User: Fold this.
Amino acid sequence: MANILDYLDWRGDLSLTAAPFNEVDNLILAELSFIDYSGIVPEMAGRQAVTIAEAAQRYFARHGTEQIDMGVLVPDAIVQLLKKAAKCRRFSEMRLVSYVSETDLARQMQFAALTVELAPKLLYVAFRGTDDTLVGWKEDFNMSFLSPVPGQTEAKRYLERVARHFPSCRLMVGGHSKGGNFAVYAAIHAKESVQKRILAVYNNDGPGFEGEVLGTVEHQRISDRIRTIVPENDVVGMMMCHEERYSVVRSDQSGFLQHDGFSWQVLGDSFVHLSEIGFGGRLVDETLKAFAAKLTREERERFVDALYEILTAGDAKTLSDLQKGKWKMAGTLIKSGYELDEESRRMVSYTLRLLFREGVKSLRHELKIEEKWERLLEERRMNLVHPFKDK
Assistant:
């Protein structure tokens, strides 16, 4: 099968006029928001926008064309995606503007966004997902007990600012991973006048929300335009409460690696869709819901804070820092775990045991369901082979 890179080879010569914007285009723009456009794309909407072709030229002039490391979990293929997009008719002349990127350790926030002018009076607002920074991952986990997190608040402000600078434009909003969560949050909480201009909100495997966000009047005003896309054995998108109407797409990876948008399979102008989420996705969904239900907000907060304290004990700022000196870092992490106060140590130990226990329970439950269906299928098969067999 093929992915978004192959899609650019197949359909990159078709303009948006010849072939309208689709869900695959959305993921490509969401992935391109992970590129560092500092000093390349203007921060202010009133300044001259740059095309994707121009942005790519400046980016590679700065970094060279050799392999560029995007971090431990951010796909390096994003750089190749930029290179391909810059050379194809469909994307090369799209204009980029309003790039912002801010990492704030004190506020525990990692936020970046980019606006793409698709056509006259049509914009795609892209929110970056979690990058290589530990504080970015901390913000992800903070969502389990804090609403809103600072990045969500910034996403709302950014969307309303873009809408104000481009008053006659229709809007599409999207992002991958945490960026998808930010896109949905911003669209739900934006002013009603901004909401009316939004054509679609794309949540590409982003985590969910605390329950009070969904079902509100603000959410109901835009819920029919929210398009949640998850891979078949999803992990990230199943976290917390999420849109129940979601599309399931085929991935050529397994487990958590399916979160990588480059693993999502493409056919023509859409992803390869499945009728339901797979066994692994159901298992994760059941496990996380049962796990979260047994922890109070205060317990979640203590666990996340203690885990972050352990990971940053050796002055690591990124996942790459943890990986580079992994043997030395392992000793530091173990030592910092022992140095936690007794309550925090107990909280970490209890939470990890609870997560494991709920995972085992969910696995047993799913296996029973699978066994039941296997028995039914075997009975149906036997009836077809021996329709007059005595019962």
Observations:
- Residues 39 and 342 are 47 Å apart (CA to CA).
- The longest helix spans residues 342-385.
- DSSP finds 15 helices and eleven strands in the chain.
